Description:
- It is a single chain.
- The protein is of the alpha/beta class and 138 residues long.
- The protein has one domain (5-136): 2-Layer Sandwich (Transcription Regulator spoIIAA).
- Helices cover 34% and strands 28% of the residues.
- It has helices spanning 37-51, 70-88, 105-117; strands spanning 5-8, 16-20, 25-29, 58-64, 92-99, 121-125, 127-128, 135-136.
- Strand 1 and strand 2 (16-20) form a beta hairpin.
- Helix 1 runs parallel beside helix 2 (70-88).
- The protein is globular and about 35 Å long.
Amino acid sequence: MSARTLIIEATEQTPKISFDSEHGNFSIVGKSLPESGESFYQPILAWLDKGLDKSATILNFEFSLPQLNLSSSKMLLFILYKLKEQKEAGKQVSIWWYHGDENSDILEVGEDYEFMVDIPFRFKTGHLNLANKELIVL
């Protein structure tokens, strides 16, 4: 972990975190089912507190979460509120939200988040491949 990048590899229960504040590219990819969402996401939120202020003026966030639990959902909302603060401070924020299909619960979660943070999301059917960030359409 550095001031400019944050990489946390995925596990069976947690997503891969790949943040590059210098270039403005951020992704959270994979299942988010930690026993404690707060324990997993708190260091990420702390990094964002420092990393976003020094980041590029254009921020591209990708969320590809085929499964997430309630504690993760709450912590993701905190991340999105940080993005809202960045947008209000004048940065350009793009959010890509990948979901299984048009009837997906994950799509509904993304739509709810979009409404709560008042940032337009770009919704895409499919999910990102962890290895090469290739889009896999289901």
